[in-house]
Write a structure and sequence with these properties.
The structure is a single chain. The radius of gyration is 23 Å and the shape is globular. The longest helix has 37 residues, at 470-506. It is built from 21 helices and no strands. It is mainly alpha-helical. Helix content is 79%, strand content 0%. Helix 4 packs antiparallel against helix 17, helix 9 packs parallel to helix 17 (403-437) and helix 19 (456-463) runs antiparallel to helix 20. The two termini are 45 Å apart. Among the domains are: 18-210, MFS general substrate transporter like domains (Growth Hormone, Chain: A); 212-267.
Length: 536
């Protein structure tokens, strides 16, 4: 049976070798900037896919993998990369990841055929796998317990808003230059951050335990196969043998990982942690609200650009109201979590997200921006409520010498949730859109029917070349998309609400254990103050 993890204040001694407050703040700034680069890179190329398709003649499958190769490689290597940071030094892992990311950003600038772009994005995913867990583990190691929750809150807020920063940045670059300017931006940011990363304090596992390479290989294969199956689902369908074969294989490999880890003297991840309701709640809730984030972005970007007619930069600005509620509620988690408890916070947060999804049903073909803004704010508030508490739940359940691995678990659940959100939403939207479009295109030529039923973007492209029948096709396609979106957001709202209730059934509440941790943090602050008085 898994022993209850010691409270965070008993597993680390912030007064033994404390960093100055300035050094803590500098570590937080550098880590959050590096995290912003990783998260921005997840979505930045989405705004440039049309330009890339025109200049490189990439097929739709190739365009998909130009975006998704980054996600797949990062997701499957997060846990091994986090373990390497714990073993050899987290600052070194951060700088190494940034260096790899910089080199990967040069590849598309030298050669821009689709295969090279996919390879370059996969290499960038390798760099991101080292960067992302190192950012959070550096923050938790640098900050004493009484400041840690607030620092983690800032990190979590940046993680939630990083995609918006990526859209804004790429939108500005595309407004003035070609799509290659995005890679120049990645290169400059990675080189600059690698340089400043050398100025922060490092941390690592003091006992220098060996890395569990066998476990690393098994979990990397499990995540890679599972995520690949998810990403192929929208194009092939969930009943395709490749899709469900990959999903089943991924689950079986994850089970094999658990068996391997239980037999290892120094496991990559002690899978018995999933018996801890705090750890389990954090991991499950992160998957759910990242499904929500990327489902919303997938829908909203198409609605704003193809129905409302905004360009890439206008779309990015339209989504910026997502950021303030996320950031504010993430930073304030230190105040409301002890008062509400993890169970109530997660339940309320996910139910608010579900309300936000169902509120999107007010949108129509002729809706204005204000009709979109208020559901957007509801969604953002729900996600902001959950972000810091769930991240802290994972990090506080794991010993300090495994903070890199804990951060990697946190990051892996995010990537799996993001991939699942896009795949689930894409499948729901595509199937419903195709069904609604069958009647409006029944009298058109077969090739036009097939193209118009595949996607709204393709229908609008064909409408431009149909002469007098074009506007009618465009109107029908927009109406079909909105109808399909209404059904999709209702389904997503029901799924998120159901997950909220299920997670709340096992989540820890505002019980004695949580209050004991709060009292322990107060005692630790008192001891730290006494130490500073003695030394001062």
């Amino acid at each position: 049976m898994l022993d209850a993890p010691a409270p965070l204040d008993q597993r680390t001694d912030p007064v033994a070798r404390p960093l100055s407050e300035r050094a803590q703040q500098w570590t937080l700034i550098v880590a959050c900037l590096a995290l912003s680069l990783v998260m921005a890179s997840l979505v930045a190329l989405n705004t440039a896919l049309a330009d890339i398709a025109r200049e490189t003649s990439a097929s739709q499958t190739q365009l998909t993998w130009i975006v998704d190769s980054y996600t797949v490689v990062m997701a499957c290597l997060l846990l091994p990369a986090g373990a390497i940071g714990d073993r050899y030094g987290r600052r070194g892992a951060l700088v190494l990841g940034l260096a790899i990311f910089a080199v990967a950003s040069v590849i598309p600038l030298l050669r821009s055929d689709p295969g090279t772009l996919i390879a370059g994005r996969a290499a960038a995913g390798l760099g991101a796998a080292f960067i992302m867990p190192a950012t959070l583990s550096l923050i938790t190691a640098a900050h004493p317990p009484e400041r840690r929750t607030r620092a983690v809150g800032i990190w979590a807020g940046i993680a939630g808003c990083g995609g918006i920063l990526g859209m804004l940045g790429s939108g500005v670059l595309l407004h003035f230059w070609s799509w290659k300017s995005i890679f120049w931006g990645f290169l400059g940011a990675a080189v600059g951050l690698a340089a400043v990363g050398l100025t922060i304090a490092t941390s690592k596992d003091p006992e220098s335990k060996p890395i569990d390479w066998r476990g690393a290989a098994v979990i990397a294969a499990a995540v890679a196969v599972f995520v690949f199956g998810i990403l192929e689902a929208p194009a092939r369908g969930w009943s395709d043998p490749l899709v469900y074969g990959c999903l089943i294989t991924g689950v079986l490999l994850a089970g094999a990982f658990g068996v391997v880890e239980l037999r290892r003297p120094h496991p990559l991840l002690d899978v018995r942690l999933f018996a801890d309701p705090t750890f389990r709640t954090g991991a499950a809730a992160i998957v759910v609200f990242f499904v929500a984030i990327f489902s919303f972005l997938f829908l909203a970007m198409q609605y704003i650009q193809l129905v409302m007619g905004y360009d890439a930069l206008q779309t990015a600005f339209a989504l910026t109201p997502l950021a303030p509620p996320m950031l504010l509620l993430s930073v304030l988690a230190f105040w409301y979590v002890p008062r509400m408890g993890l169970r109530l916070v997660v339940l309320v947060g996910l139910l608010v997200v579900a309300v936000g999804f169902t509120s999107l049903r007010v949108l129509d073909v002729g809706s204005g921006y204000l009709d979109l803004a208020w559901p957007l704010l509801i969604l953002s508030a729900g996600i902001g409520l959950c972000t810091t508490p769930t991240t802290s739940a994972i990090m506080s359940s794991v010993p300090d010498d495994k903070q890199g691995v804990a951060s990697a678990v946190n990051d892996t659940t995010r990537e799996v949730g993001a991939a699942l959100g896009i795949a689930l939403t894409g499948s729901l939207l595509a199937s419903r859109y195709t069904a609604v479009m069958q009647s409006p295109v029944a009298t058109l030529p077969p090739e036009v029917q097939r193209g118009a039923q595949r996607s709204l973007g393709e229908a609008l492209g064909m409408a431009d070349h149909l002469g007098p029948a074009g506007p009618q096709l465009a109107d029908a396609a927009r109406a079909a998309f909105v109808s399909a979106m209404h059904d999709t957001v209702l389904t997503l709202g029901v799924v998120v609400a159901a997950c909220a209730v299920l997670i709340a059934l096992w989540a820890p509440g505002r019980d004695g254990r949580q209050l004991a941790v709060v009292r322990g943090l107060r005692d630790r602050r008192a001891r730290a103050a006494a130490f500073l008085v003695r030394e001062g």
